Amino acid sequence: MFDELSKYKQGSFFFQSTDSLAEVCNVPKNKYGLYLVYALSKGRVELVYINKSGPPEKKGAVKDPRDIADDLRENLLNGYQFGEIERKNSWPVQLMIEDIEALHVHWYVTSDEKNNDLPATIKSKILQIYRGIYGHLPRWNEA
Fold first, then answer.
1. pLDDT one-digit tens code per residue, 65-121
2. Residue-number span of the structural domain to which 39 is assigned
3. Which residues are CB-contacts of 29 (< 8 A; sequence separation ≥ 6)?
4. How many CB atoms are closer than 10 A to CB 82?
5. How many domains does the chain have?
6. From the CB of residue 49, how many other CB atoms can be counted at a distance below 10 Å?
7. Between the CA of residue 68 and those of 29, 44, 57, 84, what are the distances in Å?
8. How far apart are CA 118 and CA 34, in angstroms?
9. What is the pLDDT of residues 84-95, one digit of tens each?
10. Rounded to an integer, what distance in angstroms lies between the CA atom of residue 114 and that of residue 33?
């Protein structure tokens, strides 16, 4: 669906509510990029979340120390989602609440030795494509 992402270094992993996100996550450290999260439930696959990590789009944009850019792995493991709860803790609960069997996380390194594309720009493009097809954002992006 997103041919724009094919030029980037990429990988994926599965996560179930009984897994440790830190153990199954195969995202490299010290890289910037984005990730797409697909929910597997009752034989269906649904793209539920698109997010990015990385440096701010403009130098000097960081005003608060908590806003300092994080790498892709750090963002995926320790970023907040579903309130002020880190993903490694919120995802297992959310899977049980929504009766999701597993998540299939696809990650892309958009800023490295080969490419220097800002993750925020790529995320925006991917969200626009998704919205153009479905008329709304992925459900976890809307939450």
1. 444 457 899 989 888 888 888 899 999 999 999 999 999 999 999 988 888 888 889
2. 3-57+64-142
3. 71, 73, 74
4. 15
5. 1
6. 21
7. 16, 37, 12, 17
8. 10
9. 888 999 999 999
10. 13
